[in-house]
Amino acid sequence: MKLNKEDMIKMLEINQINTDNLILMRDRNHELNQKLFHAEWKVRYLTRRLKAIDPHEAVTEEELDEMIHRKEQ
User: Which of 19, 37, 39, 53 has its CA 20 to 30 A from that of 72?
Assistant: First the structure.
């Protein structure tokens, strides 16, 4: 299979487009990972603060389910 100059140029253009898209997706993924990290950090911080204020208050869904289960018995 022999490729002419135009075919090679078209392949390089497609490769460049794909590379640019990959870089954009990598950057967006990094931004989303940063947002997720900060959101998780806020949740951990607020959970610790709530436990410091009232250790007996349910903070997680599991703790709330356990409190409801205890009240039903």
Answer: 53
How far apart CA 8 and CA 24 sit, in angstroms, is 24
> Cα–Cα distance between 51 and 60 in angstroms, integer?
11
Q: Say how far apart CA 28 and CA 40 lie, in whole Å.
A: 18
One digit per residue, the tens of pLDDT, for the chain of length 73 reads 788 999 999 999 999 999 999 999 999 999 999 999 999 999 999 999 998 998 888 888 888 888 888 888 7
Locate 17 and state its tokens.
């487009």
